[in-house]
Amino acid sequence: MRRIFIAFFTLSCLCGQLAAQENPIWDQAKVRNYLPHMTVPEVRELLQRTDMVIVPVASLEQHGLHLPIGTDYLNGVERAKLIAQRTDVLVAPILMPGQSPYHMGFPGTITLSSETIQAVYVEAAASLIRHGFKRLMFLNAHGGNSAITTFIVDRINQETAGIAVDLGAAATPYLEGTSIPPGKVFDRHGGVGETSNSLYLIPSLVDMDSAKTATLNMPAHLEKMLPDVIAGDPTALRVFLAEGLKAEETGKGTSSDEMSSTGVWGVRDLKESSAEQGRQETEDFVQASVKFIERWNELRPPKL
C-alpha cells in the first residue's frame, strides 16, 4: 500500500511539474504564412513560391468604450492573415502604433511622428527585400496613416530594389459592390462599421455591454456640413476630413475628446453592429485582394 501511495504521489508531482511548464494564458494557434509564427526553414520554403509580402500599417488608439486600443492593428493583421490563407503571400506586421495625435485626450493612445513611422517601415522593408521579398503590399488599417502609407510606398519604389503598392487602393477595382446598405446617420471612427468588423475579426475583445452612443460637439461649420457628408458629397467629405479629427495643438477644436463624449466619432446606434456585416465587408476585401495578387502574378511572375 505504501508503495502505491509513493508511486501516486510521485506521478502527481510529475504531472504538476509538466503542467507548470506551459503558459496558462497562451491560446494562439499557428497560422500559415504569418511571419511571427514561422521558422527560418518555413520562410525559405515560402520564398520558393512567392516574393510577395503584406505589411499592415496600423495604430494604437482609443476606439470608444467598447473596442480595444489595438483595434486597427488587430483587425489589419487578421485581414492580412485571411488573405494569406487564400494565396501564397507573407504577412509581416512591423509596428503597432501609427499617427494618432488627435486621440491623445484618451489614455492608452500611443502616437508616433510621420518621420518615425516611415523610417521604420522603409528600413524594415529593406530587410524583407534583402531576403527576397521584392513585392510589398502595404495594408493601411487606420485612416490617419493614409498619407504616410503613400509616402512609404513611394520611397520603397524610388529608393530600393523593391516594388510596393497600397493594397487598399490596389484591391478597390476588384470590389464587386456590397450588400451592406449605406448608413443614413454619421458613423465613422469606432462606429457601427468598425464595431461590426471587430465582432467578426476579434470577437472576444469587443465589449458590447459598454457600447454607448456618443454625444458629439463639433464646430458649427462642420456640423452644418454633415448632411452633405452623409449624402456622399465628395467635396464636402474631403473638406470635412481635412479639418475634422486633428490634434488639439492645431487649435481647430476637432480632437476626439473635444468632439466626442466617448471617443466614437459618430451617432449611429452601436447596437446595430453585427458580426455578419463585418464578415461581408471582410470577405469582400479579402476576395478583391486575392484577385489583385493573382493578376499581379500574371503580369509579373515571382521569379522575374
State the strand order across the main sheet: 2-1-3-4
The major β-sheet equals: 4 strands, parallel
Q: What is the radius of gyration computed over CA atoms, rounded to a whole number of angstroms? A: 23 Å
Query: Could you say which structural class the secondary elements and strand pairing correspond to?
Result: mainly alpha
- Reading the helices and strands in chain order gives HHEHEHEHEHHHHHH
Shape descriptor reads globular
Mean pLDDT: 94
CATH topology of one domain: Rossmann fold
Which percent bin holds the helix content? 40-55%
Give the terminus-to-terminus CA distance: 74 Å
Poorly predicted sequence stretches spanning 5 or more consecutive residues:
none
Q: Given the structure, what is the number of helices?
A: 11
What percentage of the residues does DSSP assign to strands (E)? 5-15%
Total count of strands:
4
* Oligomerization status of the protein chains: single chain
Q: Architecture of one domain in CATH?
A: 3-Layer(aba) Sandwich
* CATH 4th-level superfamily of one domain: Creatininase
